[in-house]
Design brief:
Strand order of the largest sheet of chain A: 1-4-3-5-2-6-7-8
Radius of gyration of chain A: 16 Å
Shape of chain A: globular
CATH architecture of chain A: 3-Layer(aba) Sandwich
Largest interface: A-B, 35 and 35 residues
CATH superfamily of chain A: P-loop containing nucleotide triphosphate hydrolases
Number of helices of chain A: 8
Order of helices and strands of chain A: EHEHEHEHEEHHEHEH
Largest sheet of chain A: 8 strands, parallel
Structural class of chain A: alpha/beta
Strand content of chain A: 15-25%
Helix content of chain A: 25-40%
Distance between the termini of chain A: 41 Å
Oligomer: homodimer
Number of strands of chain A: 8
Amino acid sequence: MDEVKIIEIKQSIFADNDREADRLRAGLKEERTFLLNLMSSPGSGKTTTLKRTVAALKDELRIGVMEADIDSAVDAQAMAQTGVRAIQLHTGGMCHLDAGMTEQGLKELGTADLDLAILENVGNLVCPAEFDTGAVKNAMILSVPEGHDKPLKYPLIFTVCDALIINKIDVLPYFDFDMDKVVEYAHMRNPNLKIFPICAKTGEGMKPWIDWLREQVNTWNAGE
Amino acid sequence: MDEVKIIEIKQSIFADNDREADRLRAGLKEERTFLLNLMSSPGSGKTTTLKRTVAALKDELRIGVMEADIDSAVDAQAMAQTGVRAIQLHTGGMCHLDAGMTEQGLKELGTADLDLAILENVGNLVCPAEFDTGAVKNAMILSVPEGHDKPLKYPLIFTVCDALIINKIDVLPYFDFDMDKVVEYAHMRNPNLKIFPICAKTGEGMKPWIDWLREQVNTWNAGE
């Protein structure tokens, strides 16, 4: 299980992250590669969701995945089993990725032959929301056990995301989770947020999310 | 519901956090107040666990609670209903508390007449682990839905904690959570970590945790 490439990324040297992120995005546009930044709390199901997403799209899109973690390579190993290119980024204790750090990862991953690159950010609802990684779109996962009040407590991440995946809907009967309320609170933060309730474990509800992502990728890569 | 005191804490001015934390702890020792720093991911059940903890101990200990959050006052409101003194700390986007920020909170809470002050840290497994808040003991909650691999992915927080509460054991049948593995992984990080499996919602398993905390408080406040 040691065959996964592990990259030790360094803290960014760029003072102006937003400018760096814009530059990175422009390069991706030219190269016709879409970058998705996926964020969430620890344990909300990012890797399982990505495995299903990759399985659904890998025959029509060339996909590469960067798994960011403070330590361990378990996620990149899981992802490599899906047959797509996957590397592990070690952040050396850093709680988020910025554009410079993302660029280091993209260089190691190699994006020239990819339609879709996915960054699985560090599990954290706070810091990753503060840094533009250069991604074309941001998505986040909130899982049912975390509770429907999270948009009240972690406002920024709901504001900066384009898509909100609500995972683990299979356990809705066992938790006091109010789907109407989470939609209301999330749209208070961001009226344009697309919301996709899913169960990554069983695959329930995946299609609308996959369709949305495919459309984003194809639109971007068509140069529109 | 607006009667809860909300404190906007400022970023710490202290360059040397460890020294500041030691100074804060020495002051608490002199005052015979025990400070517990409780950390976890978002949605792992910190507030529910604290409500039960406070209910079990409030007749024998004088308790005050600081609820740190980026935004909202829902936790302090919930805590105030238990009848103990509770204030809300707004971190203004900061992803953790350091000793200087904790001290600002303690001053507003008022500790002279307290046996036990509890800091509910920002929901985040990464950054809070890096900063000594001045607490006498650190505890963390990992909830069953987050998965048993978390000590592999977020090593530092398991290293710096004295107690690990494993919450939401009522939903063990619905998740692939291996209790033996999480104990093994957590003890790899920290052989001295005390582990308490509980269900804060029902109260199951709370007694060993309450007994441990009571003993810590009484030992500290006895000046031993």
